[in-house]
Amino acid sequence: MNTVKANIKNPKVWVLVIGVTVAGGVGGGGAETRRRKAKFKEDFGAFVQRFLILPSPQPPPPAAKQTLAGLTFAINDIFELEDYVTGFGNPDWARTHEASEKTAVTVTALLKNGAVCVGKTIMGELGFGVSGENMHYGTPINPEMPTHVPGGSSSGSAVAVAAGLVDFALGTDTIGCIRIPAAFCGLLSYRPSHGAVSTIGVLPNSQSLDTVGWLARDPSILLRVGHAVLKLNTVEPRRARRLIFADDLFQLSKVPKQKAEGVISKAIENLSGYQPEQHINFDQHISLNVPSLKGFRDQSTKLQNGISNLKALSSAMVSLQRHEFKTNHEDWVKSVEPKLASDVSDNVLTAINTTHENIKALYDIRKELRACMQILLKDNGILVIPTVADPPSKLNSKKQDTVESHNRALILSSIASMSGCCQVTIPLGKNDGCPISVSFITFHGGDKFLLDTVLDMYSSLKEQINFVSNPVPLQDTNENFDASELLKEKGNAAYKGKQWNKAVNYYSEAIKLNGKKATYYSNRAAAYLQVGCFQKAEEDCNRAISLDEKNVKAYLRRGTARESLLFYKDAAQDFKHALVLEPQNKVARHAEKRLRKLMS
């Protein structure tokens, strides 16, 4: 296997290229077929090319610690990387383009923050398609449902994260290209406010709709990536969150109410900072506030009663995508005549051959819809919708079987795409073996507010998901045995097995039976720390210390939580208190010393 070292100018990184590349085309003899099968077994067919791009070393103090140090990520083949050809999911594109002279701004930001890039992932051709299938490079295998599509167009990035091959991955989202694969693969994903993340060095599909997005399994990583690429403020005013359920959109989904809306409602019951939930008919809301939809409403087909305005919105979105794709790539398509999959070819040819007469109306809809969302959400509202209406279809399904599913997916995706608002996708377990996913959408520019909400709520959501999916059996065979102690021991076992959310669930059940045991709160705080729920960990430690002022572990864990929340002074006090109780405690001594240096 050949290796090559190269140096990328900005930032200072080393590139180690390992000779693993998926060749274009579907031909080849038996040996090639065996190599392809072996590759798919190794990495779920997620990558089109594997390499290592290592960031520069952590700068010495007093420089801040690299926030993504130790994390790995992948990028789909739409991001430019210096000295590499950007393939855009199609061999003819790769064949007719030179290697890039620069690296995409977003990729550079992640490398500067300490993350390691391990390769480029397969994507839908030219950024089209919501299934994630690619006839040239192969369709990445959905780890959650291997016989079903992974979703697209950022299919390889989603699969790489879902399979545990990377900590997070970049993709782009135009009409759902990050959100749909996240839903199909059971992942968290984030589509930021339009224009909030640089698209310099990203091949365009439709620039009015395109955003850079990312996928992760862990909400704390989702937030850390957001801080790196969005340049978020570390402090934001506290606002009582207001969840607004779009009842008409949940009617599109076949997921039982208790596994979607019910989980969210239960999750916020015992959380502070949430107003009583609200409900809305979203189709009626946009009917009253987006007048430019009228012309598209007349053109739209009757998909389902009561959502004619949303169908019109998705129709306008597709028209805008095709218009801008034509502007960007018409010359290349006509000169090269690329080989495309039939569904992609239909999209491309329709885009190239259509003359849009009322382009202004498309941009008017975008402007009106953003204002419409601002009216609804103000500065503290979060619209709750299903991410997708249908489960992923089987691989190689007939076209007619997927048309309605495709249309329903675009209806749900069109809200954030056309308004430019930010949207986070959240997995909620499974129903009949298929991943369940909901999405939160908030106002344009509310990215930190939305990412913080997910982190604040996620552990409680996981508790409710576990409760709905696997009610905890007490199995108390000995009448003298304390059921709460049994649950605590189960929590300890789950914690040792690194099943953090399961541990949280068991400790929570123990607390319900006996809320006077400091150990239960302290142990749950330890599990919360592992999943990045630092505020919840701090609250549990407060409760533990109020019950037992000499609980050393509670002081240590509260100190850790406060340090993670950047409350260095308070954290230092906790570690000092732990040292008073246990003067030989090495963890407390090292932490107190470290914080003293940070504050000096």
TrEMBL record:
Residue ranges annotated for the Amidase domain, each copy included: 65-218
Stretches that traverse the bilayer: 12-31
TPR repeat start-end pairs: 484-517, 518-551, 552-585
InterPro entries for the chain: Amidase_dom, AS_sf, TPR-like_helical_dom_sf, TPR_rpt
Keywords: Membrane, TPR repeat, Transmembrane, Transmembrane helix
PANTHER family, per database record: AMIDASE 1 (PTHR46310), OUTER ENVELOPE PROTEIN 64, MITOCHONDRIAL (PTHR46310:SF4)
Protein name: Outer envelope protein 64, mitochondrial
